[in-house]
């Protein structure tokens, strides 16, 4: 028994088997091993030859199964029945049917201010189930204020965000950027990165004299304001809390007012 087959382009392949016997001993039937995706359609051509077509039953998903191994059996009607088999291996080529997907929709990052330039701030990650270019992801800034873009760099290949300048809590203590992941076929996903800058105690208090009464009359009653001082520390929380004091051996005291 001799089997030949040819593969057609539209997911349908036609096969014909030849059996040199005639009558009941000639080719009677085809069988296919059980596979949910394919069935056989047997057709008889005008010259009596049986042709069999491999028909796609449901859409294929390469991400689930990248190839199918089919065994086609041709049976004759003789006794004993004689059969011939052909193995058909169907390799499924990839279609770009999966967009990239970020591991999170919103990433929250906390950073200490004064991080050295070029430090790794964060790495975003997206995955794509397709293969080759269809699964190759590049990362881009999508929506980002100009002053934020100047401070951060995004590596398109690995999604690493680094700082290109020193980040100053006292200047700005949070940044939000929108990133895009794009596969080689143009499908995209988006995420947000929210960066919070944490304070470091990098400022000394500043003392300014606002007004002073000089010279100061000797008969001034106790409690008279002599000097008005302003003290400021731009750091946050405890880093910015301050207290003022004066030498103990002087006839003056400091009173705080808001
Ligand atoms: Ca695919
Ligand atoms: Ca894809
Ligand atoms: Ca600072
Ligand atoms: Ca600070």
From TrEMBL:
<dbReference type="Pfam" id="PF00028">
    <property type="entry name" value="Cadherin"/>
</dbReference>
<keyword id="KW-1133">Transmembrane helix</keyword>
<keyword id="KW-1003">Cell membrane</keyword>
<dbReference type="GO" id="GO:0005886">
    <property type="term" value="C:plasma membrane"/>
</dbReference>
<dbReference type="GO" id="GO:0007156">
    <property type="term" value="P:homophilic cell adhesion via plasma membrane adhesion molecules"/>
</dbReference>
<feature type="domain" description="Cadherin">
    <location>
        <begin position="103"/>
        <end position="207"/>
    </location>
</feature>
<dbReference type="InterPro" id="IPR015919">
    <property type="entry name" value="Cadherin-like_sf"/>
</dbReference>
<keyword id="KW-0677">Repeat</keyword>
<dbReference type="InterPro" id="IPR050174">
    <property type="entry name" value="Protocadherin/Cadherin-CA"/>
</dbReference>
<feature type="domain" description="Cadherin">
    <location>
        <begin position="16"/>
        <end position="102"/>
    </location>
</feature>
<keyword id="KW-0325">Glycoprotein</keyword>
<keyword id="KW-0732">Signal</keyword>
<keyword id="KW-0472">Membrane</keyword>
<dbReference type="GO" id="GO:0005509">
    <property type="term" value="F:calcium ion binding"/>
</dbReference>
<dbReference type="InterPro" id="IPR020894">
    <property type="entry name" value="Cadherin_CS"/>
</dbReference>
<protein>
    <recommendedName>
        <fullName>Cadherin domain-containing protein</fullName>
    </recommendedName>
</protein>
<keyword id="KW-0130">Cell adhesion</keyword>
<dbReference type="InterPro" id="IPR002126">
    <property type="entry name" value="Cadherin-like_dom"/>
</dbReference>
<keyword id="KW-0812">Transmembrane</keyword>
<keyword id="KW-0106">Calcium</keyword>
């Amino acid at each position: 028994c001799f089997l030949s087959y040819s593969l057609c382009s539209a997911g349908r392949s036609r096969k014909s088997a030849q059996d040199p016997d005639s009558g009941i001993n000639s080719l009677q039937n085809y069988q296919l091993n059980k596979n949910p995706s394919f069935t056989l359609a047997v057709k008889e051509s005008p010259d009596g030859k049986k042709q069999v077509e491999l028909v796609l039953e449901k859409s294929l998903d390469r991400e689930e199964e990248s190839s199918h191994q089919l065994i086609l059996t041709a049976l004759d009607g003789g006794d004993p029945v004689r059969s011939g088999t052909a193995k058909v291996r169907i390799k499924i080529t990839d279609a770009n049917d999966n967009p990239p997907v970020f591991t999170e929709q919103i990433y929250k990052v906390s950073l200490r201010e004064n991080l050295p330039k070029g430090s790794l701030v964060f790495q975003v990650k997206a995955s794509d189930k397709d293969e080759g270019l269809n699964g190759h992801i590049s990362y881009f800034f999508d929506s980002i204020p100009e002053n934020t873009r100047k401070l951060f760099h995004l590596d398109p290949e690995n999604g690493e965000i680094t700082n290109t300048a020193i980040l100053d809590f006292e200047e700005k203590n949070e940044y939000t950027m929108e990133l895009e992941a794009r596969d080689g076929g143009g499908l995209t996903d988006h995420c947000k990165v929210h960066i919070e800058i944490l304070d470091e105690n990098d400022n000394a208090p500043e003392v300014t004299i606002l007004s002073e009464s000089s010279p100061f009359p000797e008969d001034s009653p106790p409690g008279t304001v002599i000097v008005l001082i302003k003290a400021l520390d731009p750091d946050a929380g405890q880093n910015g809390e301050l207290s003022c004091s004066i030498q103990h051996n002087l006839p003056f005291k400091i009173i705080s007012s808001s």
